[in-house]
Design a protein that fits this description.
This protein is an alpha/beta fold. It contains 12 helices and 8 strands. The longest helix is centred in the N-terminal third of the chain and has 18 residues.
């Protein structure tokens, strides 16, 4: 059995399709840059640098990748342009490994008997936060876990309504209160209900306002403190949802949210509708926070656990044995 045999054909096809725009963008530019070239030289590296930056890998991460390739060329004395895809794939995969990217096999979290695993989800409005929560709930329930959702984004009626609809679709309870209620109160009620009913996983939605970072930090801190009255080490995971199609805006959001709260996992959505899939590489590198999930479409099954090797293979072509 191969090391990546758990990654099904269907998942691979979804990943390939979801990254097609980014792949086409990178490969078409790279192919034009390599016309008439037989080896990787300074001109090729300059072209590659521009291609990676325009694919939203980010300047700092791009320079790091270019430096690694330069060292590889110097060490090997000669790297042909035909080998460039292989070198790119290996160096980026290694970079993701160094940045604590995790190769999750499935939608699983560490479960302690009698204590729900608590995920607090943060992110600005419009990034697909509530949809991601619904898809996560579906995947966890599919894996045989009991799930509770908490609608703590009490400032937007649409957010609460959307989460309730997802709860009905998936078949999991959603704890909610009136519009304008204290978000921490919703989180408290959700954890209490989940604990009393011996649930496995709790997912708490939160408001996505960034116009006042101090207010956001205080609000999230209050929610955490209140949750810890029910479950002392909650939340176990703070998941930041980012819209991959926004490119550099996603970097800025990651910067502000990681400053406001202790984000320890990322979900990057909407990769199927953009040529900016390189943002996954850059954000993982710059923030040293594991990318845990990626969104590749609207369907329930289109949220995938992030696997760095499969991601890089889809983006730069699979390694031929």
């Amino acid at each position: 059995m191969g090391i990546f045999s758990f990654f099904s054909k269907e998942k691979k096809e979804t990943l390939d399709k979801g990254l097609e725009k980014t792949k086409s963008n990178v490969f078409s530019k790279l192919s034009r840059a390599l016309v008439g070239k037989s080896k990787v030289d300074d001109d090729v590296l300059d072209e590659l640098e521009e291609i990676l930056i325009t694919s939203d890998v980010g300047v700092d991460t791009t320079l790091k990748i270019i430096e690694r390739i330069e060292q590889r060329v110097a060490r090997d004395k000669y790297v042909s342009t035909e080998e460039l895809h292989k070198v790119l794939r290996e160096e980026i995969a290694d970079l993701l490994t160094e940045n604590n990217a995790i190769d999750a096999e499935d939608f699983s979290v560490p479960i302690t008997s009698g204590v729900p695993y608590v995920i607090m989800v943060v992110g600005v409005n419009g990034v697909g936060k509530t949809t991601t929560i619904g898809k996560l709930a579906y995947q966890f329930k599919k894996a045989g876990k009991s799930v509770y959702l908490g609608a703590a984004d009490t400032f937007r009626a649409a957010a609460v309504e959307q989460l309730i609809i997802w709860g009905e679709r998936v078949g999991v309870p959603v704890i909610h209160q009136q519009m304008g209620s204290d978000p921490a109160s919703v989180a408290f009620d959700t954890l209490n209900s989940a604990k009393n009913n011996e649930a496995d996983i709790v997912i708490i939605d939160t408001a996505g306002r960034l116009h006042n970072k101090i207010g956001l930090m205080n609000e999230l801190t209050k929610i955490k403190n209140v949750m810890q009255k029910v479950i002392p080490d909650a939340p176990h995971e703070i998941l930041l949802v980012l819209d991959g199609s926004t490119g550099q805006n996603a970097f800025e959001q990651a910067k502000q949210f990681t400053a406001a709260t202790e984000v320890n996992a990322l979900a990057i959505t909407k990769l199927d509708g953009t040529a900016k899939g390189g943002v996954v590489i850059g954000i993982s590198d710059q923030f040293k926070t594991p990318v845990k999930y990626i969104g590749l479409g609207e369907g329930m099954e289109d949220l995938q656990v992030f696997n760095r090797r499969e991601f890089v293979d889809s983006l730069f072509g699979e390694e031929k044995n």
